[in-house]
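Researcher: Please predict.
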Amino acid sequence: MKIAKEVINKYAVHTKEYGDVIPVSKLEEMLADFQSKPYEQKLTEIDSAMKQLNEMIGNLGKEIND
């Protein structure tokens, strides 16, 4: 969630109709930035994101079971 909140805080634009949104151009910019990184750095970032996702899923499971 931390990464998502950081992205939203950095790139979000508020609209009356949809609330906070991230323009496609910013998403494309983020994707291009990621793709331009060296292979090892990409793997490190993906590994970190997967660990955070697994932790979030584990926490959700705990909350459901409580």
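Model: Residues 39-65 form the longest helix (27 residues).
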